[in-house]
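Here we describe the complex-level prediction in full. Unlike the single-chain runs in Section 2.1, the two entities below were treated as one system.
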Amino acid sequence: MALLALPGVAFLSVVFLLPLLLLLWSSIRGEGGFTVQGYVRVLGDAYYIGVIGNSLQLGLITTAGAFILGYPAAFALARARGYAQVVLFALVFLPLTVSIIVKSFGWGIVLRRDGILNWLMLNLGLIERPVRMIFTEGALYAGMINVFLPFMVLPVYSVVRMIDPRYGDAAATLGASPWYRFTRVTLPLTLPGVVAGASLVFSLAVAAYVTPSLLMGDRYMTMSMVMAKAFLNLRDWQLGGAMAAVLLAVAAAVVVGASLMQRRLARHGGGA
Amino acid sequence: MTALGVPARAAQAGASSAGHLVVTGTSKRFGAAVVLEDLSLQVAKGEFVSLLGPSGCGKTTLLRCIAGLLRPDAGRITVAGQDITALPAHRRNVGVVFQNYALFPHLTVAENIGFGLRAQGVGRTEAAPRVAEALALVRMAEHADKPVTALSGGQQQRVAVARALVVRPSLLLLDEPFSALDRKLRETMQVELKHLLREVGITAIFVTHDQEEALVVSDRIAVMNAGRIEQLADPATLYGRPVSLYVLDFVGQSTRLAGRVTATQDGMVTVETALGPVRAPGRYAPGSRVAVAVRPEAVTLGEGPAGANRISARVSEISFLGSRTQLHLDLPAEGQDRGVVELPRLPEGVQPGSRVTLAFREADTMAFPA
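The structure predicted for the assembly as a whole is:
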């Protein structure tokens, strides 16, 4: 069976592992050979710590938002029948077919000072003067959740679809209130899907580049934005490489943590 | 009575023995399809009643209405004198053993059984001995900490029963509880479960499409047809005195011949069938179309006693069933006539193609409007 993974492993080695190693090599190469100067700069500077903090915060808030909106949506999708299911599927997955650049520009059009949302609220008399929305953190979170929502819905949906609705019925006939049923039956049974969706959304959001740059610009730097600046503008390979290594460590920690949690859940469920 | 027995408060509620569960005028439709039609049913305390019928007859819908998992469009349901029609499932105290059991896959055997107690706010220390007692009752104590996914079908059923009983429901509903088991195990579990529920003293309603199962486990059987109860009776009456061709066909086998009434006298009719005249008790006008029927074991080979009905037919198939032998008769292909006869022993010389004379008493013969 392991042989079946060989082509994929070989492909990834050439296009992914090799460049990655070169990148990591560049982060520890200095004037006189080996140095940890890049890491000292990244982890010892309040500005870069702030950037890492921004990215982690963005990842966490996007994941939480995607969970709150995506979890019920996944249920609606799994329980819907016929045309309703087709329409819901389209609503969730059509946005994926729209380029992230187009989507982010779309958000700009909706949110800017003379944009649709301000126009609407002005005309409805909800506000007196245009409200500043674009280049605010609120707009960034809304945009990020919009972009990454399907990555939460899909894994949760695939788990919910497999759950027998009779588990809920059985819990009800045993005297469990709707809330008790949700927290002790539904949520534990769907947790594997939530873990998968959350780790997917988090690792995508923490590394996001396009959406934050278009919706926030340079005032709100994320790890990916610092890397792009280091490589493209400053030609500072040491800084870019070190930042990339930190991002990689964060993402790897999330993926490993999530798969360990999955294994634990698979072995003994969510506990009672 | 064990501690799992029917709670004292249910007994004090003063339900008369005639109606622990009373379903009155209950209807349910899904879109244009009428699934339950003005259905009424009374079940006495401690009684076992089966809802028997083919899929689509409304038996599972009725069960879900009683459990509170479906809201009937019309009608009233009371348990122990208390109207539960408007109560949601989790406030009804009606236990359900689901088809395929619906055990929680993320919990152990003991956690599954304790689920209802914990959900109803019973503390850990109080719940533990009751869970242990329920485990012992279904002989699953040594499997307490296993995940339910590691259990066999029979063990899963026992856990499902224990899980439903441990919260002391006022009524237990069982939806096709044996359908997931293989034949041999099914027969053992039917007797075992009946014995267990009797010991606990609970009132139970079984939903099944399997007539043999209904005959084994029930005190009374409700044969359902198109959202109504066609006949509600004890197994012997249902088998011996079915009220309609539908019940006759659904419970047990029979030889059945269509015909026309030629004479009527003193509560007896003479019916002209494809195999000759047959006399049966019944009051039908001469000329009306009826079907006469006789159960397989009421038929003997040969001339039989004086005054018996006699027909002559060709044997098409012989099936050896161990304790008895079944003869299938060759009847004219048109119509719904069929011939099934069961004999304790196959006489020598009878083989497929043989022509035989069959006799059965007039009193054992039934006539139904066709």
